[in-house]
Amino acid sequence: MREHEYSIVGHSRSRIGLYIAVFSGALASGLTLLVGYAVLRIEAAGYFDVPQLILWPFTAVSIFGILFFLFDRFAWKLFGLKAIVGVPNISGCWALTGQSYDVEQNPTFDWSGKIDITQKYERIFIHLRTETSESHSVSAAIVPEGRAGFRLIYAYRNEPKPGQKELNSHIGHCELLFSPDLCSAEGSYFNSGGRFTHGTMKLERTTEDG
């Protein structure tokens, strides 16, 4: 189980990468000039000769790598950048209540659990836990829906906990509509490939990651 890539409808990651690349080039040029000037001053003062290798770390490529790492992990969800980037931060812990239905749409049983969402700019991981089983996402997409909020669509694989003989490993599909303030969500799910059930889910945020 590990984080995987996810898509964001209407969002261009290449455009964000271009902005970071341009900024990296400008920053690299400025740092190279600054360090070069310092080297000339040191050598002119006769202290010692500074090898040219000292300038190597200040390349645009290395700076781009550092900036993109920081952006991917932290900067994209900072208050000042969220509106510009346009990617909702749904990472954190969510309390979950659900209801299952039979094929005739009659409620069968209520259940509850917890969802942990680990989200970076490029990757995401959705882990759901109940008393009887655990599931983890294998693919995901986020769809902005205007004033209604953001819809998370993901496929998952579920494994029953030891001792749950009546349950089978299976795959499933879930859609959750997050409110504009990203404090709650609700949606539906269905299972297949080992367990043919469906139902509804409601989420309430309990903690937020970073």
Quick overview:
The protein has 210 residues and is an alpha+beta fold. It is 25% helix and 41% strand. Helix 1 packs across helix 2.
What is the topology?
Layout (H helix, E strand, L loop, with lengths): L3 E2 L1 E2 L4 H32 L15 H14 L5 H7 L6 E10 L5 E13 L3 E7 L3 E12 L5 E11 L9 E9 L5 E9 L5 E11 L2
Parallel strand pairs: 2-6
Antiparallel strand pairs: 1-5, 3-4, 3-10, 4-5, 5-6, 6-7, 7-8, 8-9, 9-10
Describe this structure in words.
- With 210 residues, this protein is of the alpha+beta class.
- It is built from three helices and ten strands; from the N terminus they run E-E-H-H-H-E-E-E-E-E-E-E-E.
- Strands 3-4-5-6-7-8-9-10 form an eight-stranded antiparallel β-barrel.
- Strand 6 and strand 7 (150-160) form a beta hairpin.
List keywords for this structure.
210 residues, alpha+beta, 8-stranded antiparallel β-barrel, 3 helices
Oligomer class: single chain
How does the helix and strand content classify structurally? alpha+beta
Q: Whole-number radius of gyration?
A: 24 Å
User: Helical element count?
Assistant: 3
Classify the beta-strand content into a percent band.
35-45%
Spatial order of the strands in the main sheet? Answer: 3-4-5-6-7-8-9-10
Note the main sheet: 8 strands, antiparallel, barrel
N-to-C CA distance: 22 Å
Share of residues in helices: 25-40%
Are there runs of 5+ residues with pLDDT below 50, and where?
A: none
Looking at the structure, what is the overall shape?
elongated
Mean pLDDT rating: 87
Q: Would you count the extended β strands for me?
A: 10
Order of helices and strands: EEHHHEEEEEEEE
